[in-house]
Amino acid sequence: MNFKGLHILITGGARGIGKATAIEFAKRGAIVGINYKSDDANALATKQLLSGTQHHLFKYDISIKEQQKELIDQFIHTYGTIDVLVNNAGISIPHALEEVSFDQWADAWTNTFQTNVFAAANLSYLAAQQMISSGGGRIINVSSRGSFRGEPTKPAYGASKAALNAMGQSLAKRLAPHQIYVGTVAPGFTETDMGAVTLTPIERENLLRESPFKRMAQPEEVAHAILFLASKEAAYCSGTIIDVNGASYLRS
Ligand SMILES: NC(=O)c1ccc[n+]([C@@H]2O[C@H](COP(=O)([O-])OP(=O)(O)OC[C@H]3O[C@@H](n4cnc5c(N)ncnc54)[C@H](OP(=O)(O)O)[C@@H]3O)[C@@H](O)[C@H]2O)c1
Predict the structure, then answer these.
(1) Residue 1 or 231, more confident
(2) How many structural domains comprise the chain?
(3) What pLDDT digit, counting tens, does each position of 50-70 carry?
Protein backbone atom coordinates (compact mmCIF):
# COMPACT_ATOMS: atom_id res chain seq x y z
CA MET A 1 0.00 0.00 0.00
CA ASN A 2 1.40 3.32 -1.06
CA PHE A 3 0.08 6.63 0.23
CA LYS A 4 2.92 8.80 -1.05
CA GLY A 5 1.99 12.48 -0.98
CA LEU A 6 -1.63 11.87 0.06
CA HIS A 7 -3.11 14.18 2.67
CA ILE A 8 -4.68 12.29 5.56
CA LEU A 9 -6.69 13.82 8.41
CA ILE A 10 -7.00 11.64 11.53
CA THR A 11 -9.30 12.82 14.30
CA GLY A 12 -7.99 11.87 17.73
CA GLY A 13 -4.68 11.12 16.04
CA ALA A 14 -2.43 11.86 19.00
CA ARG A 15 -3.06 8.75 21.09
CA GLY A 16 -4.00 5.09 20.86
CA ILE A 17 -5.41 3.81 17.58
CA GLY A 18 -5.20 7.24 15.92
CA LYS A 19 -1.53 7.58 16.81
CA ALA A 20 -0.69 4.11 15.46
CA THR A 21 -2.62 4.96 12.28
CA ALA A 22 -0.71 8.22 11.85
CA ILE A 23 2.61 6.38 12.22
CA GLU A 24 1.67 3.68 9.69
CA PHE A 25 0.40 6.21 7.11
CA ALA A 26 3.54 8.32 7.49
CA LYS A 27 5.77 5.25 7.03
CA ARG A 28 4.12 4.79 3.63
CA GLY A 29 4.72 8.35 2.45
CA ALA A 30 1.50 10.07 3.53
CA ILE A 31 1.32 13.61 4.90
CA VAL A 32 -0.67 13.43 8.10
CA GLY A 33 -2.79 16.01 9.89
CA ILE A 34 -3.22 15.00 13.50
CA ASN A 35 -6.35 16.34 15.16
CA TYR A 36 -6.56 16.25 18.95
CA LYS A 37 -8.49 18.05 21.66
CA SER A 38 -6.33 19.08 24.59
CA ASP A 39 -3.07 17.26 25.25
CA ASP A 40 -0.46 19.45 23.48
CA ALA A 41 2.64 17.68 24.80
CA ASN A 42 1.36 14.29 23.78
CA ALA A 43 0.31 15.53 20.32
CA LEU A 44 3.75 17.05 19.73
CA ALA A 45 5.45 13.82 20.84
CA THR A 46 3.30 11.85 18.36
CA LYS A 47 4.09 14.25 15.52
CA GLN A 48 7.81 13.84 16.22
CA LEU A 49 7.47 10.08 15.77
CA LEU A 50 6.20 10.38 12.19
CA SER A 51 8.56 9.70 9.30
CA GLY A 52 8.83 12.49 6.77
CA THR A 53 7.99 16.14 7.00
CA GLN A 54 4.95 18.37 6.45
CA HIS A 55 2.86 16.72 9.15
CA HIS A 56 0.80 19.17 11.19
CA LEU A 57 -1.14 19.29 14.42
CA PHE A 58 -4.75 20.51 14.37
CA LYS A 59 -6.02 21.26 17.85
CA TYR A 60 -9.82 21.44 17.57
CA ASP A 61 -12.60 20.04 19.72
CA ILE A 62 -14.61 18.14 17.14
CA SER A 63 -17.64 17.89 19.41
CA ILE A 64 -18.26 21.59 18.68
CA LYS A 65 -19.85 22.38 15.32
CA GLU A 66 -17.89 25.60 14.68
CA GLN A 67 -14.61 23.82 15.40
CA GLN A 68 -15.48 21.03 12.94
CA LYS A 69 -15.70 23.65 10.18
CA GLU A 70 -12.51 25.37 11.31
CA LEU A 71 -10.66 22.04 11.34
CA ILE A 72 -11.55 21.19 7.74
CA ASP A 73 -11.00 24.78 6.55
CA GLN A 74 -7.61 24.90 8.22
CA PHE A 75 -6.60 21.47 6.89
CA ILE A 76 -7.49 22.51 3.32
CA HIS A 77 -5.81 25.87 3.78
CA THR A 78 -2.64 24.01 4.85
CA TYR A 79 -2.58 21.23 2.26
CA GLY A 80 -4.95 22.20 -0.55
CA THR A 81 -6.73 18.83 -0.60
CA ILE A 82 -8.02 16.18 1.76
CA ASP A 83 -7.54 12.69 0.33
CA VAL A 84 -8.47 10.58 3.37
CA LEU A 85 -10.54 11.43 6.44
CA VAL A 86 -10.25 8.99 9.35
CA ASN A 87 -13.08 9.57 11.82
CA ASN A 88 -11.26 7.97 14.73
CA ALA A 89 -11.83 10.19 17.79
CA GLY A 90 -14.37 8.70 20.13
CA ILE A 91 -15.36 8.86 23.77
CA SER A 92 -16.80 6.27 26.10
CA ILE A 93 -18.61 7.36 29.28
CA PRO A 94 -19.81 4.77 31.81
CA HIS A 95 -23.54 5.27 32.60
CA ALA A 96 -25.03 1.99 33.81
CA LEU A 97 -28.78 2.60 33.99
CA GLU A 98 -29.33 1.73 37.67
CA GLU A 99 -26.26 3.66 38.82
CA VAL A 100 -26.72 7.15 37.36
CA SER A 101 -29.15 10.03 37.79
CA PHE A 102 -31.41 11.09 34.94
CA ASP A 103 -29.19 14.11 34.24
CA GLN A 104 -26.06 11.94 34.13
CA TRP A 105 -27.84 9.51 31.81
CA ALA A 106 -29.05 12.25 29.45
CA ASP A 107 -25.67 13.99 29.42
CA ALA A 108 -23.86 10.74 28.64
CA TRP A 109 -26.08 10.22 25.58
CA THR A 110 -25.72 13.81 24.38
CA ASN A 111 -21.95 13.99 24.85
CA THR A 112 -21.29 10.56 23.37
CA PHE A 113 -23.33 11.28 20.26
CA GLN A 114 -21.78 14.72 19.82
CA THR A 115 -18.29 13.27 19.46
CA ASN A 116 -18.89 9.77 18.13
CA VAL A 117 -21.66 10.48 15.62
CA PHE A 118 -22.41 14.14 14.94
CA ALA A 119 -18.75 15.11 14.61
CA ALA A 120 -18.07 12.21 12.23
CA ALA A 121 -21.18 13.07 10.18
CA ASN A 122 -20.34 16.76 9.93
CA LEU A 123 -16.65 16.23 9.19
CA SER A 124 -17.63 13.71 6.51
CA TYR A 125 -19.97 16.29 4.98
CA LEU A 126 -17.30 18.99 4.95
CA ALA A 127 -14.50 16.72 3.70
CA ALA A 128 -16.75 15.23 1.02
CA GLN A 129 -17.42 18.67 -0.48
CA GLN A 130 -13.71 19.05 -1.09
CA MET A 131 -13.30 15.42 -2.24
CA ILE A 132 -16.13 15.84 -4.77
CA SER A 133 -14.48 18.90 -6.25
CA SER A 134 -11.08 17.22 -6.43
CA GLY A 135 -12.36 13.98 -8.00
CA GLY A 136 -12.51 11.54 -5.08
CA GLY A 137 -11.30 10.43 -1.68
CA ARG A 138 -11.72 8.04 1.23
CA ILE A 139 -13.62 8.25 4.50
CA ILE A 140 -12.81 5.65 7.15
CA ASN A 141 -14.82 5.43 10.37
CA VAL A 142 -13.61 3.77 13.56
CA SER A 143 -16.57 2.01 15.12
CA SER A 144 -16.51 -0.76 17.75
CA ARG A 145 -17.38 -4.36 18.42
CA GLY A 146 -19.79 -2.87 20.97
CA SER A 147 -22.06 -1.74 18.13
CA PHE A 148 -22.95 -5.38 17.48
CA ARG A 149 -22.81 -7.14 20.82
CA GLY A 150 -24.19 -4.46 23.16
CA GLU A 151 -22.55 -2.28 25.81
CA PRO A 152 -24.49 -2.80 29.06
CA THR A 153 -22.63 -0.17 31.09
CA LYS A 154 -22.24 2.28 28.19
CA PRO A 155 -25.35 1.94 26.05
CA ALA A 156 -24.87 5.35 24.41
CA TYR A 157 -21.44 4.20 23.24
CA GLY A 158 -22.82 1.03 21.62
CA ALA A 159 -25.66 2.96 20.01
CA SER A 160 -23.31 5.67 18.74
CA LYS A 161 -21.09 3.11 17.06
CA ALA A 162 -24.10 1.37 15.48
CA ALA A 163 -25.11 4.78 14.12
CA LEU A 164 -21.60 5.23 12.74
CA ASN A 165 -21.80 1.85 11.00
CA ALA A 166 -25.10 2.82 9.38
CA MET A 167 -23.80 6.24 8.41
CA GLY A 168 -20.81 4.66 6.68
CA GLN A 169 -23.03 2.31 4.71
CA SER A 170 -25.35 5.12 3.60
CA LEU A 171 -22.47 7.38 2.58
CA ALA A 172 -20.72 4.55 0.71
CA LYS A 173 -23.77 4.29 -1.55
CA ARG A 174 -24.35 8.01 -1.90
CA LEU A 175 -20.73 8.97 -2.55
CA ALA A 176 -19.73 6.11 -4.89
CA PRO A 177 -20.55 8.12 -8.06
CA HIS A 178 -18.05 10.72 -6.83
CA GLN A 179 -15.27 8.10 -6.41
CA ILE A 180 -15.42 8.53 -2.65
CA TYR A 181 -15.01 5.21 -0.86
CA VAL A 182 -16.28 4.77 2.68
CA GLY A 183 -15.25 2.00 5.05
CA THR A 184 -15.57 1.15 8.72
CA VAL A 185 -13.28 -0.69 11.12
CA ALA A 186 -14.86 -2.19 14.25
CA PRO A 187 -12.15 -2.95 16.83
CA GLY A 188 -12.58 -5.05 19.92
CA PHE A 189 -10.76 -4.37 23.18
CA THR A 190 -7.57 -2.51 22.21
CA GLU A 191 -4.63 -1.57 24.40
CA THR A 192 -5.00 2.23 24.60
CA ASP A 193 -5.69 4.88 27.23
CA MET A 194 -9.43 4.54 26.61
CA GLY A 195 -9.40 0.93 27.79
CA ALA A 196 -7.16 1.78 30.73
CA VAL A 197 -9.26 4.71 31.92
CA THR A 198 -12.85 3.58 31.41
CA LEU A 199 -12.73 -0.08 32.46
CA THR A 200 -12.86 -1.46 35.98
CA PRO A 201 -10.37 -4.27 36.74
CA ILE A 202 -13.26 -6.77 36.67
CA GLU A 203 -14.51 -5.52 33.29
CA ARG A 204 -10.98 -5.76 31.98
CA GLU A 205 -10.60 -9.33 33.22
CA ASN A 206 -13.95 -10.33 31.70
CA LEU A 207 -13.01 -8.80 28.37
CA LEU A 208 -9.74 -10.71 28.30
CA ARG A 209 -11.60 -13.92 29.14
CA GLU A 210 -13.82 -13.40 26.06
CA SER A 211 -10.77 -13.41 23.80
CA PRO A 212 -9.75 -16.81 22.43
CA PHE A 213 -6.27 -15.29 22.06
CA LYS A 214 -6.41 -14.18 25.72
CA ARG A 215 -5.16 -10.75 24.84
CA MET A 216 -6.39 -7.42 23.58
CA ALA A 217 -5.60 -5.90 20.17
CA GLN A 218 -2.55 -3.72 19.73
CA PRO A 219 -3.37 -0.31 18.18
CA GLU A 220 -1.18 -1.19 15.16
CA GLU A 221 -3.44 -4.14 14.35
CA VAL A 222 -6.40 -1.80 14.06
CA ALA A 223 -4.31 0.72 12.11
CA HIS A 224 -3.51 -1.86 9.43
CA ALA A 225 -7.21 -2.45 8.76
CA ILE A 226 -7.74 1.33 8.50
CA LEU A 227 -4.87 1.61 6.00
CA PHE A 228 -6.24 -1.27 3.96
CA LEU A 229 -9.64 0.41 3.62
CA ALA A 230 -7.96 3.70 2.74
CA SER A 231 -5.87 2.06 -0.01
CA LYS A 232 -6.57 2.12 -3.74
CA GLU A 233 -6.66 -1.68 -3.64
CA ALA A 234 -9.72 -1.64 -1.33
CA ALA A 235 -11.93 0.53 -3.57
CA TYR A 236 -14.51 -2.19 -4.16
CA CYS A 237 -14.73 -2.89 -0.41
CA SER A 238 -16.58 0.41 -0.03
CA GLY A 239 -19.44 0.04 2.45
CA THR A 240 -17.81 -2.80 4.36
CA ILE A 241 -17.23 -3.11 8.10
CA ILE A 242 -14.03 -4.94 9.09
CA ASP A 243 -13.98 -6.58 12.52
CA VAL A 244 -10.64 -6.43 14.35
CA ASN A 245 -11.58 -8.28 17.51
CA GLY A 246 -9.48 -11.47 17.56
CA ALA A 247 -12.56 -13.69 17.07
CA SER A 248 -13.96 -12.56 20.43
CA TYR A 249 -17.30 -11.69 18.83
CA LEU A 250 -18.28 -13.31 15.54
CA ARG A 251 -21.34 -11.87 13.83
CA SER A 252 -23.16 -13.70 11.06
N1 LIG B 1 -9.53 1.22 22.90
C2 LIG B 1 -10.47 0.33 22.66
O3 LIG B 1 -10.56 -0.72 23.33
C4 LIG B 1 -11.45 0.55 21.54
C5 LIG B 1 -12.30 -0.51 21.16
C6 LIG B 1 -13.20 -0.31 20.12
C7 LIG B 1 -13.27 0.91 19.48
N8 LIG B 1 -12.45 1.92 19.86
C9 LIG B 1 -12.59 3.20 19.15
O10 LIG B 1 -11.35 3.57 18.58
C11 LIG B 1 -11.24 5.00 18.54
C12 LIG B 1 -9.92 5.42 19.17
O13 LIG B 1 -9.92 4.93 20.51
P14 LIG B 1 -8.60 4.99 21.42
O15 LIG B 1 -8.79 3.94 22.47
O16 LIG B 1 -7.39 4.97 20.57
O17 LIG B 1 -8.79 6.45 22.10
P18 LIG B 1 -7.89 7.21 23.18
O19 LIG B 1 -6.63 6.49 23.46
O20 LIG B 1 -8.83 7.54 24.29
O21 LIG B 1 -7.50 8.56 22.38
C22 LIG B 1 -8.51 9.45 22.04
C23 LIG B 1 -7.98 10.53 21.10
O24 LIG B 1 -9.13 11.27 20.66
C25 LIG B 1 -8.94 12.64 20.96
N26 LIG B 1 -10.26 13.22 21.22
C27 LIG B 1 -11.21 12.83 22.10
N28 LIG B 1 -12.26 13.67 22.05
C29 LIG B 1 -11.96 14.59 21.10
C30 LIG B 1 -12.63 15.73 20.60
N31 LIG B 1 -13.83 16.10 21.06
N32 LIG B 1 -12.01 16.47 19.65
C33 LIG B 1 -10.80 16.12 19.17
N34 LIG B 1 -10.11 15.05 19.61
C35 LIG B 1 -10.69 14.30 20.57
C36 LIG B 1 -7.99 12.68 22.13
O37 LIG B 1 -7.32 13.94 22.18
P38 LIG B 1 -6.66 14.50 23.58
O39 LIG B 1 -5.69 13.44 24.05
O40 LIG B 1 -5.99 15.77 23.22
O41 LIG B 1 -7.80 14.68 24.55
C42 LIG B 1 -7.05 11.52 21.76
O43 LIG B 1 -6.08 11.94 20.82
C44 LIG B 1 -12.47 5.54 19.27
O45 LIG B 1 -13.45 5.92 18.33
C46 LIG B 1 -12.95 4.36 20.07
O47 LIG B 1 -14.33 4.41 20.31
C48 LIG B 1 -11.53 1.78 20.87
Answers:
(1) 231
(2) 1
(3) 999 999 999 999 999 999 999
